[in-house]
Fold these 2 entries.
Entry 1:
Amino acid sequence: MGRAKYRNMRWDKAARRRLSSEQGTILKDWGGRIPIALIYPNTYYVGMSNLGFQTIYGLLNSYDNIVCERVFWEKDKKSIESGRPLDDFAVLAFSISYELDYFNVVEMLRSSATPLFAADRSAAHPLVIAGGPCITANPDPLSPFFDCFAIGEGEAILPAMIEALLRGCEESEKWIRGSRNELLRALSSLPGVYVPSLHDRTPICRQWVRNIDDFATSSVILTPQTELGDMFLIEVARGCRWGCRFCLTGFLFRPFRYRSLDNLLAQAENGLKYEKRIGLLGASPFDHPEIEELVARLQQMGAEMSISSLRIRPLSRVALRGLVESGTQTLSLAPEAGSERLRKIINKGVSEKDIIEAIELVTEQPPKQLKLYFMIGLPTETEDDIDEMIELTLSLKGRIDRRRAGTHLTLTIEPFVPKAGTPFQWLPMTSDRILSHRLATLKNSLEPKGIAVRSESVAWSIVQGVLSRGDRRLAPVLARMEGKSLSSWHRALAEFSLGADFYIGREIPVDERLPWANIVSGVDLDYLKRELERARIGEETPPCPLAECQECGVC
């Protein structure tokens, strides 16, 4: 038996086992259809926990003349549904949520017969496209690899893009009908579609859905092989009202939009056919104006509930009680900073009094586990701010233990990374030496007190920062990488005479043209500058109203 045939047999057995554990898998015959590989450049476990990825999968497969299959960053790099390699598809569509997955993007393209750089492709090669939060923020580091990008929300962009693809692609040995440039020109004329090779600096405006009730954003495929494998996921709201100045979601997913109660209940009713637990997702689900009614109605339906995250303010006693009574065992709160001063700088919108009151509310119906999210390296942070974080955490643990000994407290610590499109996009990162020192201080002070401290890698956070604020000069660096390692990254940077300090070690003048300047999120640049100035003087900005306003320019 040939080696290739033996490998395929092994893959088929593994694929059958995986598919047999899924509910909702969409299997289509390829005859007469344009095949699209929807690629998540991370593992199946991570990718299938991403509700946006599942939504695009369902949306693409809703078209009768398209067959969409999933591919993940795994050894075989073949589609889950049919086991076909990337070279069999007309379109390679990447969904990219994390900057560190850029390395996997390059590796996956290299594993195919498709040339890595877009300029080297012909009509015989698949069209290579990408979307996702990282792409909407700053596509420049990946721009030499991709034929086009979708800037914004897929539901708003895909219908017109699919029409162009159906006109420009065909089922044959040569995927693209006519010339590749003709198809790219057609795509470049569409709102929200960025074609780097044809771009003339005309702004590309982010596209977004005004009424999210028009699209169901809930689990399409259920599988136990994910972190959230025991629940049916539903998006409660999109965007965030609060405008934390470091946060990508708070600016690139504006405005805040919430689903109607009837829409959510209908999705939940469908989900309860498959799972008893309903996962409510959103940056701030408790900002939904009918959250108490939603939780009560879900309880009446017999649903157990889980929620992605809770803002410290607003926090509903009624909804909290309902969540815990329905079986929620873990709750997460994000103070972000330990000191009042820093929380004002980042526009968190919560005081220490708010945090204490939130803990008191949470411990009325204490969960088994409480997670607190903090950041280190925030702009102007000092050792005093770290000391205040330690004092606050120990104080909160004392209150928790007095209410119910045994609730497990965990801190998750992430270094601040400046993100494109936010008011802090111009500010530098704190050095890895200082970040490591502050992280060690937190662990040494809190872990002996029985508080678990989990943290992101400082070294890889620095890499994330470079990619977040990077430009297209990083594409050859990514292409030069030999495996995903820090040593390979540093060697590749040095080979092209680039350094991390240039990208994240300096404050960028506000009048300097940014690598992502051609991407228009809808938030006025002057508004971002004003928010930066408010941060410098510790002045907070009120949250967005639920109705439209004219402050930032999006609505």
Entry 2:
Amino acid sequence: MQIKINNKPYNCESGETIFSICKRNGIRLPTLCAHPDLLPSEGVCRMCLVETNQSKGLVPSCVQKVSEGLEVRTETENVNKARKINLELLWADHAGKCAACLRNGRCELQKLAKEYDIDGFKFVPRRKELKSENELDLLKDNWSHVVADEKNPCIARDSQYCIECRRCVRICREMQTVEAYGTNYRSSNTNVGTPYEIPLDCIFCGQCSAVCPTAAITEKDEIEKFEKALADPQKMVIVQTAPSVRFTFLEEFGMPPGTFGEKKLVAALKALGANKVFDTILGADLTIVEEAAELIKRVKNKGVLPMFTSCCPSWVVYVEKYYPEFIPNLSSCKSPQQMMGALIKTHYAKKEKFDPKNIVSVSIMPCTSKKYEAARSEMKASGRQDVDIVLTIRELARLIRKKKIDPIKLEDGKFDPALGISTGAGMLFGSSGGVMEAALRTAAEKITGEELGRVDFEVVRGEEGIRCAEIEINDLKLRVAVVHEIRNAKKMLEDLKSGKAQYDFVEVMACPNGCIGGGGQPVPTSPEIRSARIKGVIVRDKGMSIRKSHENPVLKKIYKEFLGKPGGDKAEELLHTKYTNRKNIS
């Protein structure tokens, strides 16, 4: 079938929408409700309006299906006038609030308002119409409607910025199957929120904040806590940075997705005043060594299989809340963040003669749920909270901009060597399949007792939601699976329950493409952006001189001096954890 768009012919299939055809052919249509990670939109924002020869009025292109003989016009006077009116109505609630907005300069609504030259105060009293200057301040105060949600340690909601686009509702329902969001009330009183306006009860993945076009949903900001720690001369501020954030950090400062920014990231943290900066990749390597030992033990001793990875806190809490019968399948290994936190306040503090109570342990993560993980009662191997502050990469970037620091202009920095040696295996943690491949590189050598050289397990790489493979190591066959996004994890769990699937080892990440698409990563996000980030990870791994976790020299030294052997008593005490059935816990 062919249709015409702006007098040019385009091929299409029956059932496609005008919006999808325009997108495929590079014809831009403004939108605030459509998103590349979501199913087709429901025409909520009314920004993608077009004129056609088959309708009397304007129609939203995201819901209008094509038909024979259709002719579309995307930029007529009527179309642009209607878009501007719709945008003005949305923008009216934001007028005067941009300066204090967390998304200022990175807000989709703000960008469109600038593009369409919107007068922010058209639908509210202008300054000259006010009886006093204080009346404008009072008006702004009345706009504010921050949702108090102290039970959720990760996500902040501020309905004054909500434009009712329903992206949060759809991402939570379609991708994560949690359905923590919905719409309340009717007609002009309709608002997006939680059922019955209860506290947000979810898995803390933060995908809602990643797709929100404004600042209606953000991570809970801990910048002030970090600044306070940096300003305290009595505190030793030690920062660790996750594997994936070195491939996304510079996006916040105008560089393309996938740009390797490790040295600029370290330099920026030192410029802010951090005393030490360590690489969480050491924690990733520890996780792999401990996890490989646990997997081999389970396989040889006929333990509970499949074994699930446990470094994604959203996945862990999903199992605890919705499938507690699978808790025994979760690896007891802590995540890299928590292993590093435990080492910093025990081994490193003792070695350097620091009092752990004066250490402020900070992590820079791609993830909102790491805030929840750090606050878990089980994460106190040092006798106190092992990780004190968790910042998403977005929070860190906001602080850097606030301090007028340009990371790109800084001289390259280096991780402090005591806990800062990187490996290719640890680097792979940044994307889906990376934990599996890193674990297999170590498990293969531990099982065979041989050095296998530069071995890769590319069979577990890819971007499909569920990827399965059978790995042969000598006479041992391991059935493995790699899963990302909770909708796919749910299918995998149901297949295991019904007997349709059998695995020995399963990696699960809650976010699309793993940590590289985490809920705390830079926005905007899309499959194309995440693919570019993944390419950066793969290229970097290939160029590393050390590509297996168990070959990390710092890790070897820590086991020799402090931990003993993988899976030993000291390692169990500091690096492993337990889980809780939360199915009936509100």
